[in-house]
Amino acid sequence: MQRQMDYMTIREVFRRFHEAEAEPKGELEHVNAYTLVVAVALSAQATDAGVNKATRELFKIADTPEKMLALGEEGLTEHIKTIGLFRQKAKNVIKLSQILVDHYGGEVPNSRAALTSLPGVGRKTANVVLNMWWHYPAQAVDTHIFRVGNRTGIAPGKDVVAVERAIEDNVPADYQLHAHHWLILHGRYICVARKPKCGACIIRDLCPYEEKTL
After folding, report:
1. Measured between alpha carbons, how far is 76 from 70 in angstroms, rounded to an integer?
2. pLDDT tens digits, residue range 100-133?
3. Within 10 A of 151 (CB to CB), how many other CB atoms are there?
């Protein structure tokens, strides 16, 4: 784990990220808050591309909790059976859809506590939804962000909650909204796990990682 990067260096890191891509977007396809919740819940231990492939047709016929309940667990399973853990995920989606209908008027709530009370929705999923749909600067820490945060010192921490807090505490406020998207994309495509693409990295001169691949 690297030591916490200083403020001016972090500011330069995110200035470069912003210059390279001012409006980074999440890669999960969705049409409303409900389909975003479902897509993120399905993405656990699965790739965004795999989830998108499975949900394109699904969301054409079930883009609300009511329509998902009408489709039913077996109908949902047929659409998502290419995704890992699809049976448990189907159960969770049906359960959360019923809760949304029964307790939230069919609408997705926008507090972290309410979101994480839904089956299959953890803190990371809640943060993705809060950030992408309601534009709240929540930091959804996955394996990519955890790696980048610790490898670079941008947001070091022993667990995902510590990394989340480090981002919130150390990334300048004007970069908070898109911080997790910049970090996840950097980890997914440049600062990869086994052989980071340091030669193509726009922050390599600011990064203290000793095992650079140049």
Report:
1. 10
2. 999 999 999 999 999 999 999 999 999 999 999 9
3. 20
Percent of the chain with pLDDT over 90: 97
Predicted pLDDT at 99: 98
Under the banding of pLDDT at 50, 70 and 90, the label for residue 45 is: confident
d(CA 183, CA 60): 31
CA 114 to chain centre: 18
pLDDT for res 214? 80
Task: Give me the mean pLDDT over the 37-62 stretch.
Answer: 95
Residue 183 has phi, psi (to 5 degrees) of: -70, -40
DSSP state of 174: G
For the beta carbon of residue 123, count every other beta carbon within 10 angstroms.
16
Which DSSP string do the residues of 56-117 spell out, in sequence order? Answer: HHHHHH--SHHHHHHHHHHHHHHHHTTSTTHHHHHHHHHHHHHHHHHHSTT----SHHHHHT
Distance CA(5)–CA(100), nearest Å, equals 42
Residues carrying an active site annotation? 124, 142
Q: How far is CA 94 from CA 37, 77, 129, in A?
A: 12, 10, 18
Residue (of 86, 120, 117) closest to 104 by Cα position = 117
Give the closest residue to 18 by CA, choosing from 27, 10, 7, 6.
Answer: 10
Phi-psi region of 85 (alpha: psi -120 to 50; beta: other; left: phi over 0): left
